[in-house]
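Students often ask why inverse folding is considered easier than folding. One informal answer: many sequences map to the same fold, so there is more than one right answer. In these notes we will look at a single instance of the problem. The structure comes first.
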C-alpha cells in the first residue's frame, strides 16, 4: 500500500522491520502522488499546503498507520520543531522549510 502523511514514527511499524528512507524532490513527490494512495494527513491546513506544493488533492484522513513489508509512505516533513500542541495554518507552514521523504518498509 502507498500512503501519504506529514509524519513518520517508528510506532507505525508492525513488529521487527527494516526501512529505507530516501529524500525526494518536489517533482518526484508529485510523480508519486499521481498514482493511487491513501491519505494519513489529519489536518486541513496540511492538505491545503500539499495541494499548493503539488496541485494534487490529498483528503484529510486522521488515522493511525500500521506499515507492513512492501508498504511505502510519502512524508512531507517540516524542518522545524513546533511548540507543543501547535497546529499550523497554511500560511504559517509556508514560512517553514520542508522536505519530502519516501519511507519503504522492506
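Output (designed amino acids):
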Amino acid at each position: 500500500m502507498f500512503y501519504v502523511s506529514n509524519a513518520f514514527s517508528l510506532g507505525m511499524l508492525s513488529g521487527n522491520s527494516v526501512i529505507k528512507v530516501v529524500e525526494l524532490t518536489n517533482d518526484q513527490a508529485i510523480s508519486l502522488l499521481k498514482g493511487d494512495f491513501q491519505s494519513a494527513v489529519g489536518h486541513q491546513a496540511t492538505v491545503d499546503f500539499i495541494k499548493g506544493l503539488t496541485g494534487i488533492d490529498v483528503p484529510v484522513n486522521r488515522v493511525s498507520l500500521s506499515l507492513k513489508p512492501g508498504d511505502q509512505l510519502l512524508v512531507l516533513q517540516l524542518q522545524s520543531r513546533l511548540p507543543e500542541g501547535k497546529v499550523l495554518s497554511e500560511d504559517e507552514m509556508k514560512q517553514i522549510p520542508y522536505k519530502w521523504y519516501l519511507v519503504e518498509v522492506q
